[in-house]
UniProtKB/TrEMBL annotation:
UniProt KW Cell membrane keyword: yes
Lineage, highest ranks first: Bacteria, Bacillati, Bacillota, Bacilli, Lactobacillales
Similarity section: Belongs to the ATPase B chain family.
Any one annotated GO CC term: plasma membrane
Location of the protein in the cell: Cell membrane; Endomembrane system
Keywords: ATP synthesis, Cell membrane, CF(0), Hydrogen ion transport, Hydrolase, Ion transport, Membrane, Transmembrane, Transmembrane helix, Transport
Subunit structure: F-type ATPases have 2 components, F(1) - the catalytic core - and F(0) - the membrane proton channel. F(1) has five subunits: alpha(3), beta(3), gamma(1), delta(1), epsilon(1). F(0) has three main subunits: a(1), b(2) and c(10-14). The alpha and beta chains form an alternating ring which encloses part of the gamma chain. F(1) is attached to F(0) by a central stalk formed by the gamma and epsilon chains, while a peripheral stalk is formed by the delta and b chains.
An MF annotation (GO) of this entry: proton-transporting ATP synthase activity, rotational mechanism
Protein's membrane topology: Single-pass membrane protein
InterPro entries: ATP_synth_B-like_membr_sf, ATP_synth_b/b'su_bac/chlpt, ATP_synth_F0_bsu_bac, ATP_synthase_B_chain
NCBIfam families attached to this UniProt entry: ATP_synt_b
Protein's recorded name: ATP synthase subunit b
Amino acid sequence: MALDTLFAASHVYIGNAIWYLVIFAILMLLVKHYAWGPVSDMMEKRRQKVIEDLDSAADNRKKAETLANEREAALKNSRQEATKILSDAKANAQKTSDKIVADANSDAASIRKKAEADAKQAKTDALNDARGQVADISVAIAEKVIAKNLSAEDQKDLVDQFIKGLDN
């Protein structure tokens, strides 16, 4: 009897085990059909998205490096242009300064020449006035000394002779 009980108990267990295996197989088929396929598809889509994101990040990094290099080159070019502009401005300022100085020197020279010409003319005018006054004085003295009245032509000749005598 103990053997029958053992056999009946093991039969129950074998039947249960077979039942569990059938249920497990059905559940596996259901899981494969309803869960495993969509989960696998979802995982594949996720894998593809991660790959695309990594590729996109690499492309963006390359673009950023390219832009950084372009900006650095543009900055270097702008520094060179600024240096050139400054040197051109200094050269133009020096040219302008030299021109202003040259114009001022030219103006000063022309003013000196005009002043010398004016002084020469003033000297000539003063000498002519002095000659006229000397002639008048000489005629007046000569009239008193000689006691005769000289003609204008005679007066002029006397004055010219007197001036010639002064120059020598």
